[in-house]
Write a structure and sequence with these properties.
By secondary structure, the chain is an alpha+beta fold. The chain has helices at residues 2-19, 39-44, 141-144, 171-174; strands spanning 24-38, 48-50, 57-63, 66-71, 75-80, 88-94, 101-104, 107-112, 115-120, 128-133, 153-168. It has one domain. It has a five-stranded antiparallel β-sheet, with no helix packed on it. Strands 7-8-9-10 form a four-stranded antiparallel β-sheet, with no helix packed on it. The chain has a two-stranded antiparallel sheet with strand order 1-11.
Length: 183
């Protein structure tokens, strides 16, 4: 009889504790949604594009009256340095995944994730894509495997969005006793 009474008390307490749960929890958190582009589209856009603001500068290369300033993972800024007291950003060469670059003659050599990209900079304001060497940096494949997809597209960036999640309170809170509950 005593076990039945103890079981009834435990059941009643559990039932009362469940009846108090009226709270819904809403949580907003940021997520990064990947942006993919086809390889052909990426390679066709490797040329002199309109200048843009420098946000995350990387390596610098001086070439004649021009400065080539790497924007980490985005591309290369072309800066006119004919008047060193007032350098002017003139163009931007869009090279996703770019971290390093070098210039030899009139050719800019830059990395595009695991590929090597060659760009004609004989006229830096009209830079033109020459060619690419596929998988030139094989050591980077472990780190960049997520950038490549089976369809031949590249992960070129992320878009930050907010995600809203709502629901009942977690089970941890459902088992707590509820004193002074109200609707």
């Amino acid at each position: 009889m005593r076990k039945i009474f103890q079981g009834a008390i435990v059941f009643a307490v559990a039932l009362l504790a469940q009846s108090c749960l009226k709270d819904k929890i809403t949580k907003t958190y940021p997520i990064l949604v990947p942006i993919y582009k086809e390889k052909a589209e990426v390679y066709s856009n490797i040329k002199s594009n309109p200048a843009r603001e420098v946000k995350a500068p990387g390596k610098i290369f001086l070439y004649g009256n021009y400065i080539f300033l790497n924007e980490v993972d985005k591309g290369v800024h072309v800066i006119d340095n004919s008047d060193p007291s007032i350098p002017v950003v003139k163009a931007f060469i869009d090279i996703p995944g770019n971290v390093d670059m070098a210039v030899k003659g009139n050719t800019l050599y830059a990395d595009l994730y695991t590929d090597l990209v060659l760009v004609d900079i004989s006229n830096p304001m009209q830079a033109q894509f020459i060619k690419y060497v596929r998988m030139f940096f094989p050591k980077e494949i472990i780190l960049t495997v997520l950038w490549l997809t089976a369809a031949g597209s590249l992960l070129t960036g992320y878009k930050k969005t907010l995600r809203l999640r709502s629901g009942l309170a977690p089970a941890v809170f459902q088992l707590s006793l509820c004193y002074g509950c109200h609707e």
